[in-house]
Amino acid sequence: MLFQIYGENAGFQLLGWALVFVGLIAANELARRSKKGGIFFFLALPAALTVYFIAIYAGAAMGAEWALNNPTYTHMNSWFHYAKLYAATAGCIGFMMLKYKWSIGKTQWFKVFPFVIVAINILIAVGSDFESGIRGAMALAETGDRWWLSSENVWLYGGWWNWVNGIAGILNILCMTGWWGIYSSKKHDDMLWPDMTWLFIIAYDLWNFEYTYNNLPTHAWYCGLALLLAPTFANALWNKGGWIQNRANTLALWCMFAQVFPLFQDASVFTTIPVLYADGFMDAAVRPSAADPTMQGVVAILALAANVIVLAVIIKRSLAQKKNPYTGEIFTDTRDFQLAMARAEGK
């Protein structure tokens, strides 16, 4: 088992997961199906939230109690959360420029933007994984165990699994093929990346879940499982080729929600922690006395293995087809690719 789901709150934990999963799918559909929806979710809303965030930190700097006690300030103050929110939002805006052919979205060279922004997002997470691995080693040398307290008052357990998963993340960047094969759908509701097939999606999902499990353990039930499965579900059933757009949209939307309402995950009946916390709870004021990192190690190895296998498939296919897998598309004979291309404009 990955998470501690039992007792009187188990029903709320499952309900919370379902609400997040369905809510993200619904919000993504609203955002992708119209220009107005996309503009609201990824331009107007982030602008308003930026003003809100600045006001909170300005208030905190002046010692205002409302700011110092604001959940966003007390629970979501690490560099990672802000970097992820704005990087994901930048991706959403860029993807809209491509699918609607706004400004530089009409140019050939801008088609490489999806690869660049996804690579940046992956590297942000890899950096965080390596940081946890280093801090875990430092804690082991200083205290005899691997627990270290993050800036958001969450006890993390850093170890070799962070390094293994960080390497998997770097390999995952190399698993993105057909950088220039970006298309707009016939209805202009999706930016399509047909060469990003189920092979990459599985490798990415395993790596990213392990990232959240290692570094955002008290949030992983939602930002790991629910958030990752929402775009994968949509891609599998009705939005073939649109996975990366689905992923960026749902990630940005979730980051906005989590940044403003962190207590949903951190201190409510919906709170769900992983089996890592063998004491059965996570309290910043109490250093954990026991840990069960078994699943951290298992999933890290699975993530690394998946990315090695996918990269090996890419190398084999590129050699057989005598193509550069990054400037050319190498999955053109697969069902996923063909279904996505059937949705592309002018195809």
From TrEMBL:
<feature type="transmembrane region" description="Helical">
    <location>
        <begin position="251"/>
        <end position="277"/>
    </location>
</feature>
<keyword id="KW-1133">Transmembrane helix</keyword>
<feature type="transmembrane region" description="Helical">
    <location>
        <begin position="297"/>
        <end position="315"/>
    </location>
</feature>
<feature type="transmembrane region" description="Helical">
    <location>
        <begin position="12"/>
        <end position="31"/>
    </location>
</feature>
<dbReference type="Pfam" id="PF18948">
    <property type="entry name" value="DUF5692"/>
</dbReference>
<feature type="transmembrane region" description="Helical">
    <location>
        <begin position="160"/>
        <end position="179"/>
    </location>
</feature>
<feature type="transmembrane region" description="Helical">
    <location>
        <begin position="219"/>
        <end position="239"/>
    </location>
</feature>
<protein>
    <submittedName>
        <fullName>Membrane protein</fullName>
    </submittedName>
</protein>
<feature type="transmembrane region" description="Helical">
    <location>
        <begin position="79"/>
        <end position="98"/>
    </location>
</feature>
<keyword id="KW-0472">Membrane</keyword>
<dbReference type="InterPro" id="IPR043747">
    <property type="entry name" value="DUF5692"/>
</dbReference>
<feature type="transmembrane region" description="Helical">
    <location>
        <begin position="38"/>
        <end position="59"/>
    </location>
</feature>
<keyword id="KW-0812">Transmembrane</keyword>
